[in-house]
Amino acid sequence: MRKLILNIAIILFAILSVNSFAQDSSMIRKHPPKKNFRDKIFVGGNLGLQFGTVTFADISPLVGYKFSDKISAGIGATYQYYHYKDKYYDFETNVYGGRVFARYNFTEYLFAHAEYEYLNMEAFDFKRRRVDVVSVFGGAGYIQRISDRSGIIAMVLYNFNESVYSPYQNPIFRVGFVVGI
Asked: Residue 102 CB: number of other CB atoms within 10 A?
């Protein structure tokens, strides 16, 4: 009797085990459709404003490429209006340049941002001249989605290469938009 119960238990275990390895079509992992090059491109820009002793406006369009859901990189152009005024100086200039950046998405909404920016601007020292200013930024951002492929971006950045000619005061706040994310 013991042997019969043991044999029945072995047979039931074998039947249930084989059945558990059967595939259920709803359980098969479906691969998302492959994205073409155009689907991996995004465009947008940043807008920066600062008021006070330093008045600053920044218009910076960008174009980027999504290497994966987590990693993207791109380039951008920069135009800035800069005005410095205190009791000794009243200086106004136009600034132009470019940048390259990389982003790492932690979640659908939060990302890290690193950027290298080159600007050409007029110096506000005793002799008027144009100078080259290099900035290295790092920080974090938040995307408020408007649709599946667009959103408003807010970033807080820190300039790790701040100089006497830098048009920024740390921290730097940027607000922009992106389409194609």
From this structure: 15
The dihedral region occupied by 165, where left means phi > 0, alpha psi between -120 and 50, and beta the remainder, is: alpha
Q: How many whole angstroms from its chain centre is CA 119?
A: 20
| Dist CA 151 CA 176 (whole Å) | 9
Q: What is the chain's pLDDT, residue by residue, as a tens digit (181 residues)?
A: 555 555 555 554 455 444 444 444 454 555 566 678 888 999 999 877 888 888 888 899 999 999 998 999 999 999 988 888 888 888 788 989 999 999 999 998 999 999 999 999 887 677 788 899 999 999 999 999 999 889 999 999 999 998 888 878 899 998 899 998 7
| Residue ranges of domains in the chain | 41-179
**How far apart are the C-alpha atoms of 142 and 114, rounded to whole Å?**
14
Q: CA 103, 101, 44, 66 torsion: positive or negative?
A: negative
Q: Give the β-pairing of 71-85 and 90-105.
A: antiparallel
- Written out in words, the top-level CATH class of the domain with range 41-179 is mainly beta
